[in-house]
Amino acid sequence: MTAASAMVPPGSTIGILGGGQLGRMLALAAAALGYRTHVFVPERDSPAGQVATATTVAAYDDLDALSRFAATVDVVTFEFENVPAATAGHLAALRPVHPGPGVLAIAQDRLLEKRFLNGIGVPTAPFRPVATLPELEAALAELGRPAVLKTVRMGYDGKGQTVIRPGDDPARALLALGGADGVLEGFVDFRMEASVIVARTASGDLAHFVPVENRHVHHILDTTIAPAAIPAATADAAVETARHIARELDLVGLLAVEMFVTADDRILVNELAPRPHNSGHWTMDACRTSQFEQHVRAVCGLPLGSPERHSDAIMKNLIGDEVHGWPAILAEPDAKLHLYGKAEARPGRKMGHVNRVFPRASFA
Ligand code: AMP
Q1: Are residues 272 and 211 in the same domain?
Q2: Assuming Cys at both sites, which of 23, 52, 70, 215 could form a disulfide with 223, CB separation 3.0 to 4.6 Å?
């Protein structure tokens, strides 16, 4: 093993960039395995900061603060992929960073990501880079309508994207990008959105969770159904796709692969997230190893845990005011409530989730 892939044993400190709910659940899983955590986050009283051993509140471009942070941790990981390249590069010169800056660079740029995927034989929606109106018009002529115009960078939960339908003015859609580089995607007439989460260690071991179905409301994940009701051959193809991508990325950590399942059961990859993912929250209460524990194991060079599911599950996000339903959820025998410690229930804000679990009769 190289120094960068040496085992980081329990008792060590894991540095986590980002302070949201993913960082919070990662820190809790790390603590359960005897690790300390140090969260680096620009905001005070973050969900992750509330449960971490230590917190640095500083901007992601504060190189001095990053150096001090790195000096206190044994390995660095993150809970979001839009970590600035300079930040990841600075940290990587000081400590092992998993997944590495190269994986981040691909996952934070939709064009690079799609070119990488197509280059390793993984199909995506057809796409064209567009920066100007003539380019957009030419791309629309090729891909047809409807089509989806997205920002190349910094898009999530449907932010930074517009559907261009017949009759819509492409100039308006381009304006909505606010001058950012764009990518036009052909519209996929999918029958299901699905995802597969796979973990990979530095020594190349892989473990995946079963493919799940994801239902969105207003572009935000609302419900995950585990397992996805798709034919076994389609599920196998989805899993093999995710494992192939993880290998080709030389990933160390966790990778969520968001996919479209077409009417004729083809798999098209939409997005990669090299971190724990909302569509993996069900694993906390339905699998032998949760996605968060698996991420800790992978980045620390421990053996991966069994991703086997002992229960089927339905994960429901509690978004905005939905969180106020917590007393009724606590009274449900099959429900497991997770709250993120966010004070204010703003519309569209992920406040918590509930896993409703159904033990599998066949599980021995
Ligand atoms: P994204 O920001 O790429 O994750 O997209 C957010 C959501 O928009 C997806 O989960 C889909 O529901 C929808 N969507 C994105 N791209 C396409 C596409 N090319 N065709 C159809 N629907 C799409």
Answers
A1: yes
A2: 215
